[in-house]
Amino acid sequence: MTSVLFTIHNRLENFSKAEQKIGRYILDHTNAVIKMSTAELAAATGVSTATVARFGKTLIPDGGYPALKLRLSAESTVDQTLYDEINPKDSLDAIKSKLALRITHTIDETNRSLDDAALQAASQLIADKASVYVYGLGASNVVATDFEQKFIRIGKAVIHSQDPHLLAVGMTTQRQNVVLLLISNSGEKSESIRLANLAHSINVPVIVLSRNATSTLGKLADIILINDDSEENQTARAATTSLMAQLYVVDLLYYTFITNDYERHIKQLVASREAIKENFN
Known about the structure:
It contains 14 helices and five strands. It has helices at residues 4-11, 17-28, 30-33, 38-45, 49-59, 64-75, 92-113, 116-128, 139-152, 164-173, 190-201, 216-220, 240-259, 262-280; strands spanning 131-136, 157-160, 178-183, 206-210, 223-226.
């Protein structure tokens, strides 16, 4: 389950001024808030009861403030220092705990934000097309490489390159039977945007993997797969959580693809594994 305290900690800068007052008070007085009514928390933070109620709904849409208090109760014994940024004084055990919390949180949030219908539609589109053109820059290229290695083992032709010109030429000459997958956490990389615009001009469908559905790239997508990046404002994250989230989405897409034609894909996996074993071991 997603940590509500960690969510407050990471979203604090994006809240309104009134919501920031509530968020800071909850982080500083978690045990006290568990026993407070909406009116009591409003009085303690100097905001309206409506703002407190709205804050609860923002964090837990299905349960609001009462559900928020229950979640806080479950997390009240958690070491609050785990929510802080990693620093030079941390022990190795502390770093492990902090990273484990962040990775678990981002996977939970990705599960919440990723639309199942979009995942199925992307899988089907990849199955329907002969080739998949894949592009990602920087850390997103690691994810693009992971996609290539997974899908090529189950018989899908994957064209993955860091050269957008090469991808543009390939898409243009094979436009009738290809799909373009663009991986960009921000959704604002100029090379990816140019590839998406070209794809649209030649009627090549575009799948986008990004944290931002309203980004330039997100708006150009025929299908968008949303990954969480709760720590986008943290200076020391070095793309750790976004990379884990994107790799997780690729795994989900891969297994969705396999299960849609399980027997055939398992045979392909076995055949590819045996070929490596016989010729390269």
